[in-house]
Every structure is written in structure tokens, then in C-alpha cells.
Amino acid sequence: MQDPDKDTEWNDILRKKGILPPKENLEEQERAKEEEQLMILQKSLVKTYEDMTLEELEENEDEFNEEDEKAIEMYRQQRLAEMKAAQMKNKFGEVSEISGKDYVQEVTKAGKGIWVVLHLYKQGIPLCALINQHLNGLARKFRDVKFIKAISTTCIPNYPDKNLPTIFVYLEGDIKAQFIGPLVFGGMNLTRDELEWKISESGAIKTDLEENPRKQIQDQLMSSIRACAPTREESDSEDD
To answer: 71 vs 216, which has greater pLDDT?
Structure first.
């Protein structure tokens, strides 16, 4: 069968009689088809380099044309920014011990956008030991925050034990919150969730707790007190 797209006298006769579409339409269809194939190819190429690692992009950069290289460079910068953000998010993850000579480097020069939670403690104080334990868990949960601890008198000479435990919260060297003394923490009943909520109020961490855990305990305590308290009728009957 003769190809209807060829320029022959017979095809010209068929076009005049309307049996074959005009040649212009054929050319437009051909161009549209080529453009569609080009778009498919470009999408395929984009998919290819989006799936590549930064090392693979460097290895295959000779295969891309100028337009591809512009798109790839933008993509490379995006990937680098994402990697940097991921590294920052997982930068810490543990509670580090410091002394007074480390303070400037670890706190004042911690870095732009870095929150620092400093616990001043002393050996032999049970609540300090409890808070250190809770901070270990919080450091693993909030890896973008620097959690550090120091024996109180190594950072502040003659710091009174009655003020322990003490937690200072810093951002870029500026103090944003301070929690001083055992009463602030509620004593040995302090839970990790309560400490997390307290630190989150300073803005240092973004907690997933929906409300203050201490409030739940207080509500339960008040409910227990109301349940145990005698009613007015019971009180009157006892008087009789």
C-alpha cells in the first residue's frame, strides 16, 4: 500500500478529492507529534536526574545540554540545602558535659539559630540526677537542640546548692528562659513530659504534647479532693 504521506501525483489527486487530508494538516500533525515526543523525552530526562544522587549527577553531567544543566544546577542546590537542613536537624542527639572554660564556645558561639539548653547540677542531688536522665531522652528526641550540662560551680563560682537544679535556655547567646530551684520543677515527681513542656514554653523545642501534663495531674488531684471532701448534708448530719 502506498504511503499517504509521500508527495506523489496520486496522493495529490486524493488530497484534491478530499480522500486524504491536506498536506499542511499532515505537517502540523507531524510537528505536534515531534513536540509531544520531545516533551516525553524531557520529562524522562527530568525524572532521570531527579532520581540521581549528587555524585551521579557529576558523573553524568557531560550527557546534559545547556538547558538541562541549568535545571540540574537548581536541583543540585536544592538537594544540598535539603542535606544541610537534615544535618542540622540531627546535629546533636546527646547531652554533652562542659566546664566553665567551654561556656563561651558551647553557648555564646553555639551558632546562628541554635538553641542551647544548659543544666547546672551537682552530684548527690537526686533531682539533678533525675533531670539529667530526662534530658538524655529529650536530646535524642530533639536532635537539632544542643543539650549540655555542667557542674554548677565550674560555670558559676560559689553558685548556691539551694538553686539547684537550674536550667538556662539560650538562643544565639541570649538567655530566653531560666528555671531555678527544686520548687520550679515540682520535686522528684517531675516526669519527662513535664520537663519537655516546660522547655517548650521557651521556644527551644517544638513539642508534640497537646497540653501541659502537670495540668492533668492537678485536675486529677482536684477531682480526688472533691470526691473525698464531705458534702454539706453529710457535715450537717454529723453535727446532729
So the answer is: 71
Helix (H, G, I), strand (E, B) or coil at 181: coil
Give 187-192's long-range contacts (Cβ < 8 A, gap of 24+): 187/127, 188/126, 188/127, 188/130, 190/127, 190/130, 190/131, 190/134, 191/134, 192/134, 192/137, 192/138
3-class SS at 96? strand
Question: C-alpha grid cell for residue 216?
Answer: 492533668
Name the residue with cell 450537717. Answer: 236
What predicted TM-score, i.e. pTM, was given to this entire model? 0.58
Residue 178 host element (H or E): strand 174-180
Q: Order of strands, edge to edge, in the sheet holding 115-121?
A: 95-97, 146-151, 115-121, 166-171, 174-180
Q: How high is the pLDDT of residue 221?
A: 46
Q: Which residues pair with 169 in a beta bridge?
A: 117, 177
Q: Among residues 120, 139, 116, which one has the least CA distance to residue 128?
A: 120
146 in Cβ contact with 106 (< 8 Å): yes
Pairing assessment for the beta strands 146-151 and 115-121 based on DSSP bridges = parallel
- Residue 210 Cα to chain centre, angstroms: 18
By the 10 Å C-beta count (0-12 exposed, 13-18 middle, 19+ buried), 48 is classed as middle
